[in-house]
Amino acid sequence: MDNTKIIELKQVREHVHSGDRLWIGGWTLVRKPMAMLYELIKARLTDLHIVNNPGGPDTDLLIGSGCVSKSETNYIGHEVFGHPYNFRRMLEEADPAMPFLHDDWTVGTGTMRILAGALGIPFIPTKFLRGSDLLSPEHDGFKEIRGIDPKVPKIKFATMKDPFWEGEEFVLVPALRPDVCLLHVQEVAEDGTARISGGAFLDYYAAKASRRVIISAEKIVAQGSPHKAFDENVIPGELVDHIVEVPFGGHPTAVHGHYDNDPFWFQEYIAASKSKDKMREWLEQWMHASESFEHYLHKVGRRRLDRLVADGALGYSPNIVRRLDKIKEVI
Amino acid sequence: MNSDYSHLEMMVIAASRLLSDHQKVLVGTGIPLVAGALAKKTHARKMKMLMEAVAYDCDPESLPFCVADPRAVYQTKWLPTPVEVMGQYLQGGDIDFGFLGGAQVDKFGNLNSTCIGTYQKPRKRFEGSGGASDIALMAKNTIIIMSHEKRRFVDAVDFITSPGWYCRSLDGRSRMMRSEMGMAGGPYAVVSTLGVMKFDEVSKLMYVDSYFEDLGVELATIEQETGFAIDVSRARPLPPPTHLELETLRTKVDPEGIYMKY
Fold first, then answer.
1. Would you state the pLDDT for residue A331?
2. CA A139 to chain centre
3. Rg of chain B in Å (alpha carbons)
């Protein structure tokens, strides 16, 4: 049995370093590797460079925790739950003591960029971005560090006429080259083979493009467990460096077939994120004062977690009240 | 004046009426999703609804929270990744209608979902493009849907996140007509809480095509709530919701009132 890839949750801290370009898997409110990110926050990492496209509560929380100095992504937000106040504050009330640079992209170009990374090519032509202010040189969020920071492409984009066919003008965008990729999936086999249901988003491409890959899973299973279809194997084990079993490791985001978004978390977090002081209290209470992820889940409470459990046939929970203005704490 | 339904409901219903069978429609999170789902459950059952993160031809039973929600996955015919949906179908020119929201729209249909104020020092910063810029650029037609307020319907947006008819040149330094840049597609309609706006064939300027007369909307109201001079001479009243449209929206599409805020 090859179980040398299995680590403890706390060991995630040993494999992610300040200054790393970080890809966080999943999609906005879905399958975010939250338990692993909580470890990075508790370890008080700084200077992370976020490259996942797009970001949800994962990214806003890392920013609010002071872990991030750069982000290049197409979206940071909580979708219909509310606004990303930590991200907003960093740009609206720039604090010289906490330098933060943000460069805007799009889902299409974020996709092309990580695809280029997976293909092992330095850039890729795209039809996207034309006509947008995102192409204007004065709106290059990384302008001041291009050519200086080796982890940032020397220019944001280039243009080129198609030399092979019709001669149409294309935009060239640089590959994304994450140092580390954190994913949360439903199941991972002991050799690192990752099984995902309900959509893989860009997780495979990110794993292929990244130097180090750490996967947390609801469950670590024996390779080739007969009850599972192999067509859910999305990422081959050879791409994966470390794996860790963390039930509810995506909480408060949704994990298809396991549990749904936790509206109570979003209600409390978004309210706290509106001010620096309240955010600090939230971080103290939910991050630093939680000795372990089990302790955190204990504080969330069994009753709340039970309500989130997905219906086997639907893949989501039909029991949650999804309007924050209509929910009250479960008694 | 009929007050049995809201402006928000009429906006969604008016938007859904622009869609029809046999189209491929790429919908964004939020109200566009509601309008797409309503069309799919009423008059456009054969329309294919796509979501950028995961879904090709979906017909959710419960309204998704985002474009990756397990609700968007349920009974969906194919679960592609964004490499297929955005990189291949959208970029390949296979999407008939893109459906977008935003914070600001201008008279040429440029959309802003990035910031108010300057980009470097925004007064108000938003979530960012997501897939909106790509969809506005590469879909054959774009439908924009947003609340009709003077601060949202502006002469020129603070930031062109998603290109309309008169957008940013490739060197980023000036503005050009979309057609001069060899870009296909473009805004087809803006559906608001007051009416439906379209764009003049020649000037590409926004005009009022129809308005929600049944809700008491007057053309003067639209002029007042629009931050630029808008042509209302072609406007006609839009028929109010049918029983089927309202009933489907309330009981099947958004019974929880997540977007309709009942």
1. 38
2. 24
3. 18
Structure tokens at A235: 């990422």
Q: What is the pLDDT of residues B131-179, one digit of tens each?
A: 999 999 999 999 999 999 999 999 999 999 999 999 999 887 889 999 9
Residue B231 is given by DSSP the state B
Chain B nearest C-alpha distance from A199 (Å) = 6
Q: In which region does residue B109 sit, left (phi positive, over 0), alpha (psi from -120 to 50) or beta (all else)?
A: left
- Spatial distance between the Cα atoms of B168 and B159, rounded to a whole number of angstroms: 10
A26 touches chain B (CB under 8 A): yes
Is residue A299 left, alpha or beta, with left meaning phi > 0 and alpha meaning psi from -120 to 50? alpha
> What is residue B222's predicted lDDT score, i.e. its pLDDT?
98
Q: What's the pLDDT score for residue B1? A: 45
pLDDT at position A323, please? 84
How far apart CA B253 and CA B244 sit, in angstroms, is: 12
pLDDT score at A223: 74
CB atoms inside a 10 Å sphere around CB A144: 10
**CATH numbers and ranges of domains, chain B:** 7-253 (3.40.1080.10)
Give, as one character, the DSSP assignment of residue B242: P
Q: Give start and end residues of each alpha helix (H) in A200-324.
A: 203-209, 263-273, 276-282, 293-300, 302-308
The two three-digit tokens of residue B180, written as one number = 């001069």
User: Which residues in chain A show pLDDT less than 70?
Assistant: 1-3, 224-229, 329-331
Using only the alpha carbons of chain A, give its radius of gyration.
20
Residue A185 gets which letter from DSSP?
E
* Sequence-ordered list of residues with C-beta below 8 angstroms from that of A78, at least 6 positions apart, any chain: A28, A29, A56, A57, A60, A84, A266, A270
The whole-number pLDDT of residue A134 equals 94
Which structure tokens are listed for A316? 């989501």
Q: For residue B167, give the chain A residue with the closest CA.
A: A131
Question: pLDDT value at position B3?
Answer: 64
pLDDT at residue number A137: 86
What pLDDT, on the 0 to 100 scale, is given for residue A227? 57
User: How far are the Cα atoms of A66, A100, B17 from residue A97, in angstroms, in the given order?
Assistant: 11, 10, 52
* Min Cα–Cα distance to chain B from A204, Å: 10
| Mean pLDDT value of segment B64-72 | 92
Q: Which two tokens stand for residue A250?
A: 């995506």
Tell me which residue of A56, A48, A59, A27 sits closest to A203, measured CA to CA.
A27
Which residues touch A289 (CB under 8 Å, ≥6 apart)? Answer: none
Q: Cβ contact (<8 Å) for B53 and A27?
A: yes
Task: Specify the pLDDT at position B183.
Answer: 93
Query: Which two three-digit tokens encode residue A181?
Result: 């990729």
Cβ-Cβ contacts under 8 Å, B81 against chain A: 199-202, 204-205
Copy the structure tokens of residue B122.
């925004």
Cα(A33)–Cα(A27) distance, integer angstroms: 10
Structure tokens at B160: 């062109």
The pLDDT of residue B2 is: 52
